[in-house]
Fold this protein.
Amino acid sequence: MVERTFLLVWHTPSLIKPRQPTFNRMDSLARSIQQAVWLSHGLREDVIVKAYFTDGVLLTLTPRDWRGVHVDERSLLGQLNSAREKRTPGIRYEERSFREVLEGVQPPIFLLEEDGQPLEESMLTHSGTFILGGPLGIPEDLGSFLKEYPRVRVGRKAYLASSVIAHLNILLDEQGE
Ligand SMILES: C[S@@+](CC[C@H](N)C(=O)[O-])C[C@H]1O[C@@H](n2cnc3c(N)ncnc32)[C@H](O)[C@@H]1O
């Protein structure tokens, strides 16, 4: 039963070049996926990761359906890339408007931003959707779709999206105990 979704709103098109991980900052995306999905000895079954790109492509990762997906960045990017051509369990690409993406995720929805309100644990239920930007933040033209959601921060500094995801996962794990 999936209980938390991380939606990464990326600032580039969805083109992945596995041999060149920094192209379109997919290294950063791969690290965010790693932190969202892997525990020390296995995959989280209660997480979905979505990434929305500037070319209107939505990537949805459902780790509980994955078979043989690797933890290292290059292999992960290679698998994400080949899944565009070859049907791969747990990895799906589709074209969507941003509005459709937001309508398709589980509430409550939180927008993670370093200048948001302090995130209080009482705001967190075990389920929900957490929206984060990539290295350049959320693209400006999509920001207006997000105005209705609470903007929250996990600290006063700008952290890597992957660090914020790791922090949220641990907080939510504690809530679920
Ligand atoms: C490397 S940061 C981008 C920072 C960039 N200066 C910006 O304008 O958004 C990537 C993403 O991590 C999240 N993030 C970074 N620091 C955060 C914080 N202290 N609290 C909540 N989210 C944070 C935000 O979603 C941000 O878009």
